[in-house]
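Let us work through a complete example step by step.
Step 1: write down the sequence.
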Amino acid sequence: MIEQFSQKTQEELKYYVYILINPRDNKIFYVGKVYGNRVFFHINEAIFNPIGTGKLEIIRAIKLENLKVKHFIVRHGIEENEALIVESVLINFLTFKNFAEVAKI
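Step 2: predict the structure and record it as tokens.
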């Protein structure tokens, strides 16, 4: 698994929106937007930061089972304002609880 992007890749990606996936159930547990290698920093943050946020607790549990967090870039090559919109839409969509009610409309 890639641990960081090359400088050329970072420049070509520009801002991007990514998701982190739990390999134990293949569920998305985090959506982020970033420029550079931030997508890979969460693992080190979980190892070296004792603070117990939900995201870090999930990563720690995955690591305890000797598994790796899956990363997926949803959209890339965009400007920061576009990345904010994509991130926001994904978070709203993924946390929407009542799809059955929408289907009735």
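Step 3: interpret the result. The chain has a mean pLDDT of 86.
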